[in-house]
Amino acid sequence: MRAPLGLYTHPDCLLHDAGPGNPERPERLRALTAHLERTGIWQDLQILKAQPASAADLERVHTREYLDRVESQFAAGEDFVDSADANGNRETFAATRLASGAALDAAEQILAGTLQRAFVMLRPPGHHAEVDRAMGFCFSNHVALAARSAIQQHGLERVAIVDFDVHHGNGTQHIFERDPSVFYASLHQSPHYPGTGAKEERGLGDGEGTTLNCPMPAGSGDGAWQAALEETVLPALDGFEPQLLLISAGFDAHQRDPLSETLLTSEAFGRMTRSLLDLAKQHAKGRVISILEGGYDLEGLSEGVAAHLGELTA
Ligand SMILES: [Zn+2]
Predict the structure, then answer these.
(1) Kind plus residue range of the DSSP H or E element containing 144
(2) Distance 310 CA to ligand 1 centre (A)
(3) Which residue numbers in the chain have pLDDT < 50?
């Protein structure tokens, strides 16, 4: 009996267009869906249609002034907001609301016990989005919204976020760096975009000790990443005892990815996921919400996600 996994998606996420040549493109989701259908994984999933997050939902993390700016600038036909790597079109705000809404619904369903695990397969991604600033293809921070909702609306005391996207999740770290109820752990290539995520960044004030960064050199590969996860991240999370595990699942550390030099194989994503699922089973009743972040080579993304979902449904 395979564990039921809810996969959130919505066709309108294909309408968000970051412009010609941008690697964060609709084809990512098209190729991924086709691969999951072809390999038979799709049939094992409970496919769920995302609903958009409301303004009040988004304001649990972002400022109203910032959200208004994203909405109005794209509605006016601008092609980026805040920084030249946060491109979009008239459909971008609706797409990011859907991705955030899916993450929030996943938290609600899982904490109500109607779902055991979920994969949020929408775009744009979210982990670079700050409280009041778009950057790095991201506009609203889906994983941060799910974590905050789990604490504030559903009464959890400890939530962990593990981010294995090849880029450091600056937005997520900054949102929770003073919050001891959310443990943020990241493996990322360093030096690399966005430049944050040094080992010395361990949280601030009451949140000191609940931020953990594992900067990894270019070329580090499967063994070094799995070792960092097993020897540094998992022991820390074991001590934290999270009641829910969230994953910022980026697949841009793949050896085929054009935006990194980290060189992970597809199988590495399966191994990391298995270790994370063991942790969730031990402390969090097996409850996992994984949220798609980056991954820009269509084949690398498809194979990496297939390995990830293969473990999450095991
Ligand atoms: Zn990334």
Answers:
(1) helix 142-152
(2) 22
(3) 1
Q: Which two tokens stand for residue 203?
A: 């949280």
Rounded to an integer, what distance in angstroms lies between the CA atom of residue 7 and that of residue 33? 11
In angstroms, rounded to a whole number, what is the distance separating the alpha carbons of residues 136 and 169? 10
Q: Is 174 a catalytic residue?
A: no
CATH number (domain holding residue 175): 3.40.800.20
pLDDT of residue 1: 45
- Distance from Cα 115 to the centre of ligand 1, integer Å: 27
pLDDT tens by residue, 37-52? 999 999 999 999 999 9
Q: Which domain holds residue 306?
A: 5-312
Among 16, 128, 174, 308, which one carries the catalytic annotation?
A: 128
Our count of domains for the chain comes to 1
Distance (angstroms) between ligand 1 centre and the Cα of 165 equals 5
Question: Is the pTM of the predicted complex or chain greater than 0.85?
Answer: yes
pLDDT reported for residue 3: 61
d(CA 65, CA 84): 19
* Cα 291 to ligand 1 centre (Å): 12
